[in-house]
Amino acid sequence: MRKNVNSHSGRMFSDRKWSLPFFASVIVSIMLFLTAIFGLFSSPYVGEQLPFDIISFSRSEDSSDYFVESDLRRSLETSGVSKTKAPRLAYLISGTKGDSHRMMRTLEAVYHPRNQYILHLDLEAPPRERLELTNLVKSDPMFREVENVRVMAQSNLVTYKGPTMIACTLQAVAVLLRESLEWDWFINLSASDYPLVTQDDLLHVFSNLSRNTNFIEHMQITGWKLNQRAKPIIIDPGLYLSKKSDLALTTQRRSLPTSFKLFTGSAWIMLTRSFLEYCIWGWDNFPRTILMYYTNFISSPEGYFHTVICNTPEFRNTAISHDLHYIAWDSPPKQHPISLSMKDFDKMVKSKAPFARKFAKGDPVLDKIDKELLGRTNRFAPGAWCAGSLDGGADPCSLRGNDTVFRPGPGAKRLQELLDSLLSEDFRKTQCS
What we know:
Helices cover 40% and strands 12% of the residues. It is an alpha/beta fold. It has a domain at 85-210 and 266-283 and 322-380 and 394-428. Keywords: Glycoprotein, Glycosyltransferase, Membrane, Transferase, Transmembrane, Transmembrane helix. It is a single-pass type II membrane protein. One of its GO terms (molecular function) is glucuronosyltransferase activity. It is found in: Membrane.
């Protein structure tokens, strides 16, 4: 009995020990609650600036400003008018086995200190040739001084009609975005391409053009191309083999997509930095979805960028359906360009295009272009940046001057006439249709 009483009294003593803190906490809680209620109706900061910022999501502005896509929209709006600063171009010049010297000739013909250049000699070229190309660039005093020419260290096996060409292009763009913040348009050329205007002509004309204008020849896929390109499923051996071979066709066929429209056109492009940033980063995942789709698509380089740009509202109206090339095609269905020669010179000039393709290695028409269109007597096509003397047949471009000043020639007039027609209202009505 004594044991039970003691036990009971112990519990009573324990309860009394916790009662005081309990009631104290209740009183404090009530006081805090009442203070909070009255504080809602009588703020001590009435008429004064709050000591912190309040973000209200019910404000009149569009809430889309909080998302990364709005940065793209604002960028497009602010750069819709041409910038006053002289533009810069970024070039990818690609080649294969035996093309190293042709690539250097094309590079020197399109060289300007303001621009950026990436050279890619694919995996089919022997290591000795890739090393020779690298040494040519490293040993050049102008390239060493300006540091705007790079040889892609990682060589890829490129199948022209397969997705490996897209992969190589996207890799070059990624390198340019990582290493250079100063370029406005990206241009892809091959070793068989050649310019028909000087860089001074090109940069002068593009100085007055909106930096949101993309040149990409395109049309919606119809007719025979739907059955021969869109429905077959292909495998590009260049993705997993070390030697180039033809595309492999599977026996299966697929239906056409319903969530986006398919477009096709020229593989030769001049695209804006803002659009290519979207293709690389792809914050809404659409460019990656299209890239996966075109991994198994015949002639995917002629459809990937075209389908992305024409299915993206922010960029659809920036697409101009022209590849800025003069190309002479074979007889219908015009699937293979013929090699240009002397007999095509007048047609090239009349086309007013800044580039032409394709040229056979060392064709005499290249010398004619150098002399009559580019004024090229030494290594580089001369421009206002060439500050050296012509005395004694010296190279005026051996001394670099102000690269923000341009000296346009007849090529600028031809190119301006071409752009005036391409930017006309009637021509632009047909884009992405």
